[in-house]
Amino acid sequence: MALLSIRNLTTIFNCEEGQLKACSNVSLDINPGQTLGIIGETGCGKSVLGMSVLRLLPANAVINGQIMYKNQDLLTLPDKEMCKVRGSEIGFLPQSPSTSLNPVLSIGEQLTEGLQLHRGMIKEKARIIALDILRSLGLKDSARTSAEYPHQLSGGMKQRVLAAISISGQPSLLIADEPTKGLDAVNRIQVVDLLRQLSRKTRASLLLITHDLKVAAALCDEIAVMYSGEIVEKGPAEQVLNNPLHPYTQGLVASLPERGLYPIPGHSPGLLDDSPGCRFYSRCPIGNEKCKCQPIINREVDGVHVRCLYIDQSGGAQQRIYGRGFQSEAG
Amino acid sequence: MDGVGFTVKPGETLGLVGESGSGKSTVARTMLGLIPPSSGRVFFQGQEVLTANGRMKKEFCGKMQIIFQHPESALNPRMKIYESLLEPMLIHRQNSSREEMKIKSRELLQQIGLSEEHLTRYPHELSGGQIQRVVLARVLSLSPQFLVADEPTSMLDASVQAQVLRILKRIQLENGIGLLFISHDIEVVSCMSDRIAVMYKGQIVESAPAEELCQNPLHPYSRLLVEAFSSLEKSSVKQVWVEDEKIDTASRCHYYSHCPHAGPACRQRPVLRETGAEHYTACWLL
């Protein structure tokens, strides 16, 4: 039984330029204790997906579909009920630690706030628990940290504090939005470690939104690849990353430095574009007229769901599409 | 920055890696005279850069160029792309007439894979990767012989990063530009560079040919960096923290407090020594 199951989620922003479809027909499941990674490039709608689950989008957003969490549809919940879900049922770990903490409140105050609100503690008890949580996340001198203000902490410590806040309500699902963006190698490892610790300690499910394939590989059980608002491939992490089927996933993997930095030509079509066919068509090395006109349906190959016409049981599109060595082409 | 020294030959790429705050960008800015150094000298084609003034200084500015990390802030938001492209040419007057400059800017745009329609747009209408390419084109408009790329792709996605890096590499090889490539991503650096220098707390702690450094890192910090990239899965990489207040922090090895092998010898700051063919390391324990 899935903890969170998203069915046909479509999120549309009404803008001056028209309707911007940030998520279209997304269906996903997360089981208890599982880590699901959403990978994709900037602007593909992966953060909007996370925010749609939490219903934290601006007023011009229209969310359709179904988001079932523990047998209730989050989209039909009254606002008041939804407030109770945020924090105590679904935690959120935001992307930039330096701007996500309140600069004028001490760490302790920010941490106890959630405990008082979501777990109904009195201030004194909340303080003790807050210190415990900080200590459990490796901030040894927790009393000192909780008296400090965000500007006194290093980036890594801030990330830990945010993690502490996000799990303080004991959520069963944690949504982490690009937790490693812009970090250097050593810090990145620490964050990966931290997330691993969190999921081990709290047994919470994790929805990890990232564009870093290596982080996804290290943490996820399942991976969904998002392109221009659609899930184009979804399956067990290892299979998706080591044996990508969809041409876009293949391109993503090939553009990693260790695979030779082969770029995918062209740009994504933009979310305003509403043509019926495959969204990857204009950049796809194997696409043809058929892909352009008809809606592409998901098909399943060995437990992996792929949205491409040219994947058959024998793995028809599996020819390596992306080319020559980096240094040699440059020369 | 503390006693940093290196050379870049024409057509060669030197990669500079290190964590945030290790002084990589300071090196770049100091070399180009954007930050005055406390002491030390920089030579370009045998001539001293930092003390140059007047016409010489302007000439150096044209020949030594830099690409910054945040492309959005490198272009003037109120100038159309072609205005941004023309500006350096107008200042340096390498091409005589405005018409010639316009032709050149079109050529440049073609080289970096953008079309003419982009010329009349504003920076906010372009994506991060496109802007970084415009910046690259602008830099090239002066035909520089030395280029500093300061984290040019750290804000970009993997696929866009691959695009920009390929263009950069192609242009560098075609024009024989000496390149200083700065990044915290050792994998990207190893793809781009002939030599790699590792920086830690303002000091170059190791320098070696790219392949050698990635396969056989000697300094404990470089080893940590290389491992941090290869083994995200195992999380075997742990930084230790030994703090010995009695030792004067000003004179000991910068890596002392994190180094798993630190010994008595490390209370004095190590200098770069040759530890292999073309391989220099600043560590007493080798």
Characterize the structure shown.
The complex is a heterodimer of chains A (about 325) and B (about 290). Chain A is of the alpha/beta class and about 325 residues long. Helix content of chain A is about 35%, strand content about 25%. The longest helix of chain B has 18 residues. In chain B, helix 4 runs parallel beside helix 6. The mean pLDDT of chain B is about 85. In chain B, the strands form 2 sheets. Chain B has an 8-stranded mixed beta sheet with strand order 4-5-6-1-7-8-10-9, with helices on both faces. A two-stranded antiparallel sheet of chain B has the order 2-3. Chain B has 10 helices and 10 strands. Chain B has about 290 residues and is α/β, with parallel strands linked by helices. Chain B has 2 domains: about 190 residues, Rossmann fold (3-Layer(aba) Sandwich), CATH 3.40.50.300; about 70 residues, no CATH class. Chain B is globular and about 65 Å long. The chains are: A alpha/beta (about 325), B alpha/beta (about 290).
